[in-house]
Recover the amino acids of this structure.
């Protein structure tokens, strides 16, 4: 708000020096405002300070909306992670130790799959980072996906949970990594925000 007020109060030479920056803030579709700012660039041209202030106001509003969207998604991811973590903690306390190993292997596979997230992460506008929430969600989702998949396979008779049985552990790693399919929606939303 102070910057918006300064455009109205500063000397012409100071405001004229800011015109290229203000022009860069004008959306490409607003050719009328861009043309007006180009006219202000002449050394003797009279500047309409209200037009310049409105450019800053519109820019600040759009930045605020973008930051709000990123913050909302970040908070949604953290809440989802907390719910999954609570469900995993309760489940971990109730299940067989072999299933705890399955959960741990799924979490490790989810962590390994988050390397894809780190290598393809798009920077979102503003001060809020989304990589850490993404990684945490993938770890929890990997653990839960592995647990559910192995339980389904055990019930279907396609895998066994006993000491020395590597089949269930291999499935845990595969399905823990496969959580990528479930968390792809979050990845897509983050890429949309980064545009």
């Amino acid at each position: 708000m102070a910057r918006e007020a300064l455009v109205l109060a500063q000397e012409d030479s100071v405001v004229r020096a800011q015109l290229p920056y203000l022009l860069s803030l004008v959306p490409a579709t607003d050719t009328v405002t861009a043309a007006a700012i180009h006219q202000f660039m002449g050394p003797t041209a009279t500047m309409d300070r209200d037009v310049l202030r409105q450019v800053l106001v519109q820019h600040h509003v759009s930045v605020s909306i973008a930051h709000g969207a990123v913050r909302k998604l970040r908070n949604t991811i953290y809440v989802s992670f907390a719910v999954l973590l609570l469900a995993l903690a309760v489940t971990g306390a109730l299940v067989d130790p072999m299933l705890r190993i399955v959960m741990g292997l799924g979490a490790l596979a989810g962590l390994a799959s988050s390397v894809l997230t780190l290598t393809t992460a798009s920077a979102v506008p503003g001060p809020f980072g989304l990589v850490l929430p993404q990684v945490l969600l993938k770890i929890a989702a990997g653990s839960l996906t592995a647990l559910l998949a192995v339980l389904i396979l055990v019930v279907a008779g396609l895998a066994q949970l006993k000491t020395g049985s590597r089949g269930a552990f291999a499935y845990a790693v595969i399905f823990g990594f496969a959580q990528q399919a479930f968390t792809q929606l979050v990845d897509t939303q983050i890429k949309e925000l980064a545009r």
